[in-house]
Batch of 2 targets.
Target 1
Amino acid sequence: MPDAAVVRNSYLAALRAGDRRRAFAVVEDARGQGLDVAALYLDVLQQSLREVGRLWQENEMTVAEEHLATAITQMVMARVHADVAADVTQGARSLVAACADTERHDVGLRMVCDLLERDGWDVAYLGASVPAESLVHLVRERRPDAVALSASIAPHLPQLGTMIRCVREATGDAAPFILVGGRPFLDEPQLAHRLGADATAPDALAAVAILRERVA
Amino acid sequence: MSESRVGSRLHGCLRGFPAAALELSADGYVMDSNGRLEALLGQGVVNRPFAELLDTTSRAKWARLLAGRDRGDAPAGELWEFVLEGRSALELRTFAAVWGHDGNEAVLWLIEYSRDLRLEPLYEELSAANAELVQAQRELAKERTRLARAHALEAEARATAERAVRLR
């Protein structure tokens, strides 16, 4: 089993160089040595992207480089997706996932969805920048057991609050379990309840555990 | 700072510059502006701390820029990206930071790095194309897995049928 910290350093170096082929090779090598998908997601990919954000704060990386790092990471996740996807069993719990309107950072939410799919959930992923009406339309259509929403910065929280309110208004007593996540909730977890959500999770594994426990 | 000269410090060429040009005190107060930033943000900027114009995610970075002068490690014309709070949206802008002196006062000039607006739709399209490619790759991986499982089931069924025929 490879050391996740060593893999992360190599992966981060590839991201800083904007070298997607090197990034793919690092991940393929690590997976070949037995690195679990959850460990890859949380200890390598997510930590590397957080470090990229910190490097932007240090003025050592530009927004364009950050976008490229995110795009490379999305490609990496797509490449390992075959290992993640399980057959959805009949009667599986279902979830609809979306990022707040104007929110473009969707890697964290994507990780949650991939790990839920591995756990046998039926997941409908709407992606980044989702208008509230689109979310409500799909929730009415699919009647999911849970909804997962994401916002990475405080200015996107009002849109998240609107989405939560619209989902609850549209579903009434049959409202799905609403889980929220993103940087603002790491700093202040009680924000989740103030916005009208049922819970928040600090990372994708915790999200899976919470949903497994709280959604029948 | 010299209050008497607030609002009248920028050289003529910076006044006419097509992007934002600011002169600030060493502690980050805007002393003069060529008006472009006001037009972008929809608010006055002169006589205000530049930090007030920034999104919270950029304020620590701004403090780092200011501290760079004290540390003596501020390279001339280094580029800095900041997220500003615009009229209705956050605005990402890049500035060249140039430290200098006006008489005995240390001053900081922030000169906005002019963007080529023709590139922005291209970036949007590239980003959208990448997202579609990634999604297609995921769907392909899923279908490949389903196909492999279907083949395995079919092979098992065929083997069972052959065994049944031999037993007869």
Target 2
Amino acid sequence: MTAQADEPQLRPRRQLPRPSPESQPFWDGCARRELLIQRCQPRGHYWFPPAGLCPRCWSADFTWTPASGRGEVFTFTVYRRAYAPELAGQLPYAVGIVQLAEGPRLITNIVDCAPEDIVVGMPVEVVFEDLADGVTLHAFRPRGDQH
Amino acid sequence: MYQRTAAIVGAAHSRIGEVPGSSSLGLMVDAAVGAVADAGLAPGDIDGVLVRGPDDEYCFHQQLGERLGLDVAWATTLDNGGASQTLSVVLAALAIEAGLATTVLCGYARDAWSRTRQTGSRSGRMNQSTHRRRREWRDSFGYFGEPATHALGARRHMSLFGTTKEQLGHVAVAQREHATRNPHAQMREPLTMADYLGARLVAEPFGVYDCSLRTDAGAAVVVTTTERARDLPHTPVIVRGFGSHNNLSGWTSGEHMVETAARQSGERAYRMADVAPADINVAQLYDCFTYMVLAQIEDYGFCAKGEGGQFVASGALRLDGAIPTNTSGGQLSEGHVEGMLQIVEGVRQLRHEYPVDRQVPDARLALVSGHGGNTVCHTTLILERG
């Protein structure tokens, strides 16, 4: 998306996330502009997306931990075809896999950047976008500093 | 240790392409009847059914068995996406070797082109919880469709190794060239590199010619004992070895989109078959997208990881190339039958059925791959002319 991150996007109702009990804390965090990820107590593994147990050691003993919000682009693609009529007005837009500094990777949008300027390895930082219906989504924009 | 007990003795497909009025079940029946006839067998000979249809069809094996009047020892419908069809041949071979069945029908059919003409979901119904998770973690970000998923892999490969769009184009162009000589192929018009580079973009770097087709078709093979195969009309195609690998942790985990499950699957198959990449005469590689062919060429050891772009650009996939690949056009040009046509083509090449402009000379060993199951599951067959 090339629109400003601080304007509510008119995202179709059917695409808004419907949280589950296990993911609700994540979305609540987004609404407070916090990127929360789960971390297991025994070994300190991080994971994403939200799930009831650590995918590495299967422990269900975890905490929701604020992530730094920093990451880098692991890979990305730029949509040129609209997969739903409502998306046509947003083309071209970038979907990326961002690898957080803490390790997990997440699917997101790369914003505030021309699609042709996105590169694998680009440092990014999280931004939050309030949508209709009280939903807040994360996205990532290029990060100025190189740390 | 697998004793090479199984051989493919029959192979057939239905009409391929745009078949208005077709149904998945009807296409599967056509292919099944054709494969059993091709094998020189009768309905009563079949004692195993391993098939797959659209994801919204329940127990496709039972629906097929009801049409064909089959009460059999060994049967199921597979649910491993594009890795299902090669896996069905593996399961047939294992059942035959274990003495649970003697003659197994393996197949796939889907009226995918006709479904694009209907309203509603293209990809079939997902259950509620899968749908909810997709909506939450994908749809919300405008992430839809298989092209984008594989485009993410292509982009990372390009970044790590300098692979270019034009190199991906060599896959599309080579396979279309094979299809121009295939009277059954869905796409038979020549495709130039200029056509490929000028194509409408879908999800970068992919354009329309990077993507496999939507096809109405069914295809099937019959697997039986190597011993029995020798009494049947065609040269037996022996299942010499196989392997599988499944990166269930996900496409975006590790480096699974750059070094795919084909690598470990291939290593297991080569080891079981006691052959090396250099011994393979023809490859039928699961080609949902151009990028997946390039990645598998590397993962199967036909060239080093990262060198696939240069390798395919050198003409390696052509009939006269280092590793003739998808020689009837593949899913990019012949038709997308979830890898089942690749098994059929592997069999036909090893039978030496083709005129000289389509036949890999003296083909003895074929490698056939299946890839899918949310992009991470993979099964490899190594077939040998008997």
